[in-house]
Specification:
- This protein has 173 residues and is of the alpha+beta class.
- The protein folds into 2 domains: 4-108, no CATH class; 110-168.
- It has helices spanning 25-33, 50-59, 74-84, 89-92, 112-130, 141-152, 157-168, and strands spanning 4-10, 17-22, 40-47, 64-66, 69-70.
- The protein has a 5-stranded antiparallel β-sheet, sandwiched between helices.
- The longest helix is centred in the C-terminal third of the chain and has 19 residues, at 112-130.
Length: 173
């Protein structure tokens, strides 16, 4: 599965900027938008994994607002601009300010099963909210059961298709 490092911020504002990792950055933005008081935009998305995300967080540690959100700054704006213009992450990221933080939570420390489970949960949650439901637990039980299933094994193609079908249907008018 190809993952992407994404940079999301409120439209028309310099920050705060969310630096995250997801298999589907646009869908992740939709999920974040349901909780945000401001409309959000995807500034840039590049191929990368959870280790790359953690490295970026370490390089911008002094600008961390909370969790994966960072205050706008010149260095971060340059990184996003360089990535948007096609500069590879390895060349664009200045690691001279890197500080390794000891953290016990977050995606970089998750097992592969937990990553699969959280991915399924986020997709179902975003789709449930588009349907006017409050959270993923209000989605059909056969789908929410797949969140637990994904912890122990990869989903079958028919299970993935069921999640995709639910996630891609918009709220009925």
């Amino acid at each position: 599965m190809t993952r992407h490092i994404y940079f999301i911020k409120p439209i028309g504002m310099e920050g705060p900027i969310k630096i995250g990792c997801s298999a589907d950055a646009a869908m992740r933005m939709d999920g974040l938008a349901s909780w945000s008081p401001f409309p959000l935009e995807l500034v840039v998305s590049v191929v990368g994994d959870f280790k790359d995300e953690s490295l970026i967080h370490q390089c911008f540690h002094e600008f961390r607002s909370h969790r994966e959100w960072f205050h706008a700054n010149v260095r971060l704006a340059k990184l996003m601009s360089d990535l948007a213009s096609g500069v590879p992450l390895a060349l664009a990221l200045d690691q001279s300010t890197r500080v390794v933080e000891k953290r016990n939570c977050g995606g970089a420390q998750w097992s592969e099963g937990m990553r699969r489970s959280m991915s399924v949960m986020h997709r179902i949650d975003a789709a449930a909210k588009r349907r006017g439901l409050n959270y993923y637990g209000q989605a059909p039980a056969h789908l929410t059961d797949l969140i637990e299933t994904a912890k122990s094994r990869p989903l079958t193609s028919s299970e993935v298709d069921a999640v995709d079908a639910y996630a891609n249907r918009r709220k009925a008018a």
